Amino acid sequence: MSVKINCLNPIAKCGMELLPDTYEVTDNFADADAVLVRSASMHDLELSDNLLAVARAGAGVNNIPLDKCAEKGIVVFNTPGANANGVKELVVAALLMASRDLVGGYNWVKDNAAEADIAKMVEKQKKNYAGNEILGKKLGVIGLGAIGAKVANVALKLGMQVYGYDPYVSVDAAWGLSKDVKHITNVEDIYRDCDYITVHVPALDSTKGMINADAFALMKDGVKILNFARDVLVNDEDMKAALDSGKVAKYMTDFPNPAIAGYKNVVAFPHLGASTAESEDNCAVMACKEIKAYINDGNIKNSVNYPNVNMGQCSDVARVTICHKNIPNMLTQFTGVFSKKGGNVSGMISKAKGDYAYSILDIGVEPTADDIAELSAIEGVVKVRVIK
Ligand SMILES: NC(=O)C1=CN([C@@H]2O[C@H](COP(=O)(O)OP(=O)(O)OC[C@H]3O[C@@H](n4cnc5c(N)ncnc54)[C@H](O)[C@@H]3O)[C@@H](O)[C@H]2O)C=CC1
Ligand SMILES: O=C(O)C(=O)COP(=O)(O)O
């Protein structure tokens, strides 16, 4: 079995090295069985019928057409938490940079580096770059997933009072969260009370533009906003008005766009959150393991559009996997294809996620082309694969 992998972004070598020798890298997207991607947008790409899987080496999947992939039986993975520490550390830097005018001070020194009496000038100039401390200040964290929980915990260690809001927090993330984070159930309490607000939610229809004029109206004057999640979470025009009025003292973001890049009191970075050697390695390793487990054994871990399913390795004659719609009466139809010719189904697992489901069947007979055609013809079946 030869498997063709296409990388839409560079993927760290230590991940690629985990792929077996039977895998080869292709530059041709249309030819690929599996795709590895970071932030490259896939929305305008034609998805071929042979494409089985996409692994996003990272967290956010807003660059991938998830529904279109599900409809074509393309399983999309991400790498939960693999770059969270990288982002957390950059957010800590941003918290400090929002408080001390490191950028202004640094630029002043650079501009005056040739002055012979610079050491003397510094003592006169420094008042222009004075700031405040974060100790004792209130930080609101919106979204307590892999990144938000880490940011909340480290901010407590830096002496901040931390307010956390996440109505859908996972059990894992909640376990990792310090009990000293104040549990907020109405996001407006964060807007009203906090000196710093940081957002760590995915870009969804429900979160787009959430930081807008209504939210600013509730906030303290001089609030500092940190956005290391996605630019679309913030309404740019409302942000510019809030910066103009002084409602927002600083907007720290990893997502510059033409509307806010270069705007007064905006400090923007070129999407650096996950750009550390450690995060890139962690994401690549997790993504490549996910692809290998799916392509070689049909097992799904960390998918965002199909359910997680693990049936280990096949010890019977053959394994057939089926991506299908989450509708009644599918399993009896699947087993029927094999049982009517005396084929024993020795193992079966089926799980659903939203409108889609995924089933694995281990069987005691070699499936024929007719069997596969029969399975594929069942209404609601999206993709059938013979693994072994
Ligand atoms: N700057 C960068 O380089 C990076 C940015 N990101 C961005 O950060 C986001 C978060 O990443 P992770 O923490 O790893 O993801 P995660 O999936 O672990 O956490 C997201 C959290 O947001 C919560 N959430 C969803 N809707 C919400 C709402 N309306 N209000 C409050 N909470 C809500 C979820 O319940 C979940 O706990 C990603 O989706 C991505 O957009 C992620 C990694 C790197
Ligand atoms: O993981 C994420 O959501 C990120 O934003 C990181 O993006 P990147 O892999 O650095 O292009």
List the helices and strands and how they pair.
Layout: E1 3-7, H1 13-16, E2 23-25, E3 34-37, E4 53-56, H2 66-71, E5 75-77, H3 84-97, H4 102-111, H5 118-125, E6 138-142, H6 146-157, E7 161-165, H7 171-176, E8 182-183, H8 187-193, E9 196-199, H9 213-218, E10 223-227, H10 236-245, E11 248-253, E12 266-268, H11 277-297, E13 318-325, H12 330-339, E14 345-353, E15 356-363, H13 369-377, E16 381-386
Parallel strand pairs: 1-2, 1-3, 3-4, 4-5, 6-7, 6-9, 7-8, 9-10, 10-11, 11-12
Antiparallel strand pairs: 13-15, 13-16, 14-15
Helix pairs in contact: 3-6
Bound molecules: 1,4-dihydronicotinamide adenine dinucleotide and 2-oxo-3-(phosphonooxy)propanoic acid.
The site of 2-oxo-3-(phosphonooxy)propanoic acid has 10 residues, from loops.
Protein name: D-3-phosphoglycerate dehydrogenase
Domain ACT: 319-388
EC number: 1.1.1.399, 1.1.1.95
